[in-house]
Protein: SMC-Scp complex subunit ScpB
Organism: Pacificimonas pallii
Amino acid sequence: MNETLRIVEAVLFAAEEPLSLDVIGAHLPENAPVKALLVELAESYHPRGINLVERGGKWLFQTAPDLSHILRRETARPRKLSRAAIETLSVIAYHEPVTRAQVEEIRGVSLSKGTLDVLMELGWVRPAGRREVPGRPLLYATTTGFLVHFGLTSRRDLPGIQELKAAGLLDPMAEALELAREEAEQPDMLEDADDQE
């Protein structure tokens, strides 16, 4: 193993949180191929008990998925998220950055302040600036912690509507709402015919 690769390994091992390419590159000689070194290191760790993985553009070591059950301890179960919290997290993940009002509009109900607080305490949602409109409402987005917890490399790995339907996670009411939304977005054929007359 060459010296530069050893430096990358040491930097990642000592890190308390996932690191970006820029942070890792700051510890390496100038013009070092950071991404190539990370890929090489990830390949060398692939068969081991810990793996080097990328989550949200940042790199970290984590337990190999096939061994994680061995390291689990019997601990107090964290409280389950409410349906409102799960729906809110989903809206933020799929539409980020979004305001509280946008979350409420998509969900169709008011959002209690505690719902966002729970998601921020878990480290899955963070404030992401302010929208440049009157009142400058706060924007919310997911965090790297969200990606790590759910084993996603990026938000592009979130399941699409077809995958959710195939898994039976969309109920008939949700499908009917989606169909109605699609129809509302398409121009009405009768109105087009009336306009032509």
